[in-house]
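INFO  loader      accepted 1 record
INFO  loader      residues=260
INFO  predictor   begin
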Amino acid sequence: MLRIDANKLTLVYGSNTVVRDISFAIESGCITGLVGPNGCGKSSIIKALSRVLAPQSGSISYNGLNTAQLSCRELACLLGVVPQIPLLPSNFTAFEVVLMGRNPHLGLFQYESSKDFEIVRRAMEQTRTQHLAERRIGELSGGEIQSVVIARVLAQQTQGILLDEPTSNLDIGRQTEVLDLMRDLCHRHGLMIGVVLHDLNLAVQYCDHMILLNQGSIVAEGAPSQVVTPENIRTVYGGGSAVYSIDGLPAVLPRAGSSV
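INFO  predictor   done
INFO  writer      dumping tokens
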């Protein structure tokens, strides 16, 4: 079980403050979605939670333990990350990239065992990437690379996963497959899932808890029906969209001609 707590978190790039004094928690067994317009701080929060970006002020803890007290290996055994733009060696095969997910579980000079290879094969089956196993990363599409990176995180076998726009390069069928898999891992296996999504309607369908951000601050937090309201959407995105109720859930649709 994993819980991440951010307390009075402020993040900056140079002289530019991108997140200002926010507090929230992401818990096991719950999909928490970070949503909001471009530049509101969503990706920066993922970087801070995964210790890529150091906070200017505030703290981040895993199960009450400050992240600064964890070694890189301990962190990698607790948390897997799917970045928005993965940087991968183009000459590696997809199988070799997914196998990297086993590194935190190997000792010094230890080689992968048959168990590790089986875990990798299962992760590729779950993400439907097994047919890519022998292809090199440089030969794959953006969507295929995204799916391989998700398989790598599954092979890492962590207690939590953070995903930064994991559906951005995927068609609608693959989007739902990936999010269905995350929901299964979260609800059936108790993983902690934090995900950045641009598509509010996907977020409403899959997230148990949503955090709506704007200009580095939290505008609303709670269940999708509490967050995706006409007032909140108008405040954050302007008057170009309308909120409807479909099957008991809010849905956001654009108003034609509203930008003219």
